[in-house]
Design a protein that fits this description.
alpha/beta; six-stranded mixed sheet; globular; binds zinc ion; about 270 residues; Beta-carbonic Anhydrase, Chain A
Length: about 270
């Protein structure tokens, strides 16, 4: 059994914390119901529901579609809220079974070789069903992704996040968990059934255990689900004070760090912001 003291010690030594990010990219295009490829700029503000509904109405799956040659448009720097809105729009499209992105052509790939400007950092779980680019309807070059089973963030992950924020200019970090997360489930089993884990697997679940214990105190009907949501909230909270660069940008309003949870059943992401 792992004691609370051991858990807190592991936490203090920097064993855990996950994060998400986003990046700027091409103006998205959509497929119309007539099968024509059209490029529709999603320039409207996220709060412009009418514009979003119009785009969603025209979306259909890309199955059988020919690749669309990318036309590069230098993306403007966006605010944290604009970045968050873009992720919400992308997930709305994906969860309805659509996709607005097209595979990048050779010209776009060559452009990206010169540099990247991701509009968000995504700190997610390694789970094969939660690919950030797909669930947020994003293309190459748009998301800076840090993934570890359980959506935790160690020192290497933290360094990756700081790099994306400080050097690539990403204005948003999203810590993304998901329903039925096996890593969190293992942490729940360690805490409640005293499952014996060793070595690397134990190191994987240790950063999650404080969230399990915290969730346990509320006596939730579904401890695993409560722990999943607590884990991403705790991770986001720790990130806000984990590094001076991140803290300074947060204070200046040039960065936002939020938590979120992806529902495997509905394909929808619920943000805590
Ligand atoms: Zn997971």
């Amino acid at each position: 059994m792992v004691s609370r003291r051991l858990l807190l010690g592991a936490l203090a030594s920097g064993l855990a914390v996950p994060v998400l990010a986003w990046a700027e990219g091409d103006t998205p295009s959509v497929l119309t119901r007539k099968g024509r490829r059209t490029r529709r700029a999603l320039k409207s503000h996220p709060s412009d529901k009418a514009a979003l509904d119009k785009v969603l109405a025209e979306v259909k799956p890309l199955e059988g579609a020919e690749p669309v040659e990318a036309v590069h448009v230098e993306p403007p720097r966006v605010s944290p809220d604009e970045a968050l809105g873009r992720l919400k729009q992308g997930n709305a499209i994906f969860s309805r079974g659509g996709a607005s992105i097209a595979l990048p052509g050779a010209a776009r790939i060559a452009e990206m070789a010169a540099g990247q400007k991701p509009f968000a950092v995504i700190v997610g779980c390694s789970d094969s069903r939660v690919g950030p680019e797909l669930i947020f309807d994003c293309n190459l070059g748009e998301l800076f992704v840090v993934r570890v089973a359980g959506s935790t963030v160690g020192q290497e992950g933290l360094g990756s996040i700081v790099y994306a924020v400080e050097h690539l200019g990403a204005p948003l970090v999203v810590v993304l968990g998901h329903t039925k997360c096996g890593a969190v489930g293992a942490a729940v089993d360690v805490a409640t059934k005293h499952i014996d884990l060793h070595g690397a697997l134990l190191n994987m679940v240790l950063p999650i255990l404080p969230a399990v214990l915290e969730a346990q105190e509320r006596h939730p009907a579904d401890l695993q689900d409560a722990a999943i949501r607590q884990n991403v909230r705790d991770t986001a909270a720790r990130l806000k004070v984990a590094d001076g660069v991140l803290a300074a940008k947060l204070a200046e309003g040039r960065l936002k760090i939020v938590s979120a949870c992806y529902d495997l059943s509905t394909a929808q992401v619920a943000f805590d912001a």
